[in-house]
Amino acid sequence: MKALVSSGLRMWSVVFPSWAARWLLDQFMTPRPWRKPVTSFVGSHSEMADGSVLWRLGKGEKRALLVHGWSGHRDQFSSITKILLDRGFEVHLLDPPGHGDSPPQRSNPVRFIQAIEAVFGYLGRVDLAIGHSMGASALLHACLSKPRYAPSHLVSISAPANFEFPVRTAARMANLGDAATVQFMAMVEQEAGVPFAQLDLTTRATTGAPPLLLVHDENDPQIPVEHAEMIQSNWPKATVLLTKGFGHNRVLAAPTALDTIDQLLAE
């Protein structure tokens, strides 16, 4: 049945490429709701102008910002949040537009970046920022765009080096034909308002960027580990920590990753 559906989508995209591209655009730009019950966090929150929701947990002199990925949720940071709270951090967790407790709406990578930039302006400089998946890439872009707000240390987990890769992957997974894929890619760029070339961490100027820890699983099925290596090659003070057997999401609770983050906080 799955193969039959895939073949049907392929044929549809060849005969009606514009319709197929528009259909996938609507699917791609609409975040899926997080299915796991939210039980990990009880704290205050602030509603941002763009619809994002910023949660605050704990109270301390040092502050950390956590940003989850596409169709993700702040609950994914439960293990990391516990470490931060135990270390006396005030923890801020961002639900970007269309995610978590923010109103349901379309979103895109640029809206993630803009949401993080707005949080920087709201909070001022934070001591540590950690992002996962698209949230990690958006966080790095925001730090490069707003260097005066860049935290002392950054942790990027399972991040794509560019946003073109996940978009093209979506087209391949949907089995779009060539013409539909080209139109889909153009539609994503048009809705985001920024060409893919400007959202590539391997070509952006990173002079003066803060130290960066890149955590990536060797067998990540969504974002290949080579993306961590590509980011490292263009980031002056970047180190890569590889895990094995945790994939794209479970790496957020990988013992080696948690121990390294805890050691970074201790230092």
Could you walk me through the main structural features you see in this protein, from its secondary elements to its overall organization?
This protein has 267 residues and is of the alpha/beta class. It contains nine helices and eight strands. It has helices at residues 2-15, 17-28, 78-86, 109-123, 134-145, 164-173, 178-192, 226-234, 255-266; strands at residues 44-47, 53-57, 62-67, 89-95, 128-132, 153-157, 212-217, 238-243. It has an eight-stranded mixed β-sheet with strand order 1-2-4-3-5-6-7-8, with helices on both faces. Helix 3 runs parallel beside helix 9 (255-266), helix 4 (109-123) crosses helix 5 (134-145) and helix 6 runs antiparallel to helix 7 (178-192). It is globular. 43% of the residues are buried. The model is unreliable at 1-5 (pLDDT under 50).
Q: Let me know the number of strands.
A: 8
Q: What percent of residues adopt helix (DSSP H or I)?
A: 40-55%
| Sheet with most strands: strand arrangement | 1-2-4-3-5-6-7-8
Contiguous uncertain segments of 5+ residues = 1-5
Termini separation comes to 54 Å
